[in-house]
From TrEMBL:
Coiled coil: none annotated. Its EC number is 6.3.4.-. The keyword Ribosomal protein does not apply. ATP binds at residues 7-20, 101, 158, 183. It comes from Turicibacter sanguinis. It comes from the Bacteria. Catalyzes the formation of N(4)-acetylcytidine (ac(4)C) at the wobble position of elongator tRNA(Met), using acetate and ATP as substrates. First activates an acetate ion to form acetyladenylate (Ac-AMP) and then transfers the acetyl group to tRNA to form ac(4)C34. It catalyses: cytidine(34) in elongator tRNA(Met) + acetate + ATP = N(4)-acetylcytidine(34) in elongator tRNA(Met) + AMP + diphosphate. SUPFAM superfamilies: Nucleotidylyl transferase. One of its GO terms (biological process) is tRNA modification. This is tRNA(Met) cytidine acetate ligase. Keywords: ATP-binding, Cytoplasm, Ligase, Nucleotide-binding, RNA-binding, tRNA processing, tRNA-binding. It is found in: Cytoplasm. One of its GO terms (cellular component) is cytoplasm.
Amino acid sequence: MKATGLIVEYNPFHNGHLYHLKQSLKQSQGDVLIVVMSGHFTQRGEPAVINKWERTKMALANGADLVIELPYVFSCQHADLFAKGAVSILTQIHANDLIFGSESGKIDDLKRLESISKSENFQKELQNFIKLGDSVPLAHQKALTSLNLDTTLGTLPNNTLGVYYIRAVNDLKSNLSVKTIKRLHSDYHDVLPTHHELSSATSIRHLRETGQPYENYVPKIVHQLLEQNYELTKTYHTWESYFPFLKQKILTLTPRSLKMIHDVEEGIEHRLYAAMMDSTDFEDFMKKVKTKRYTRTRLQRICANILTHTTKELVQELDKGAPYIRILGASSKGRQYLKLHKKQINVPIYSKFDSKGHPFLLHEQAVTAAYSCILPEPHCTTLIQAEFKNFPIFLKS
C-alpha cells in the first residue's frame, strides 16, 4: 500500500484542507492517507479551536485513513522542530510521500531556497541581524534582502514551513518524496474571507467567535461538530478565555521558576512577571511583553509552555525526532496499513495512553489538563479522563 503523508493542524478543518487532501492523493496516487496532526495547542502557540478527538473525527470523515498525534513538545515549537517532529513520524511509519500546501506551489524553488538558507553567507547575515535584536523571522527576511534574493518566496508562512519540511527530510535522511500543492485564495493570516467557499482557518475562527456564519467554508460534518461542541460547552478556546489561568500561573511562580520553562530566555521571565502584575486581559499582556526580538507567536508559545508547565528539562534531544507514534484515529484502510507495517516500525506505537510511556507521552496529560481548564463541568473532567481512557476513533467503512 502506497502511503501519502500530510502534516496538519485542522484548526478547524475547512474546504481548503479538503482540496489539499484530495489533490495530495491524486498527485501521489496513494492508497492510504496518513495525517500527523497537532494535539491541543498549535505551532503558533494557540489553543486549538476544538479538542483533538473532535478534530480527528473531522479528518477521518473527510478522507484521512490514519491520524497520528504530533506530541506537544513538537507541535508548539518554532518551524524547525515542528517540521522535524512531524517528518520523523511520517518516516517511521514508512509513508512514501509528504505533500504540503504552499503559496509558491513550486517544489524546485522551495528546495533551492532551503539550500540557500543553509549557506555560509546566508547564515552569517542571519546571525548579524539577530545580534542586532531582530526576531528570527525578521532577520530571515533581512538576510534574504541583503543577498538580493526573493523575499516574497522566503517570507510567506507556508513557503517557510515547506522549506523546513524539506530540511527535516534531508537532516533525518528520510526516504520521503517531498511535493507541494499551491494554496488557493486565502492567506493564512486573513481575518476575513476572500472567496465564497474558501477561507483561512484564522478567518473561520474569527467568524465563529463573533457569531457570524461560516458554514460555506467548512464541510457539513465539521460545522455540525463545531456547533454541537459549543452547544455543550458554551466555550471558545481563545487566549482571552485562558488569561485568568495564565495570570494565576505566572504570578504564583517566581521569575526564577519561570526561567525553568522551555523557551523562557534572556531575562524575559522578569518582563513576563512585571507585565502580568497590571495586565487586565491577554491583549493587554501581549502589548506589554512584545518586543522587537520576541514576536507574538513566540510569546504565545511561551505562554502555552507556562500553562502546560513544559520545562527545559523535559524538552531535550528533540533533534532526533519523535520517539513514539500515538494513533488518534483510523479507517479500515488505515488499520490494514498498520497491520502490514507494524513489524517494520522501530518506535513504540500507542493506541492508548500508557503511564509507563515516554516522558513526552506522559506530558500530554498536563497539556490536556491545561487545555480543559476553561471548560465547565462535567466537560472539563470528561476531556481530562479521555486522555487516559480513549482508544483511537475507528471509522467503519
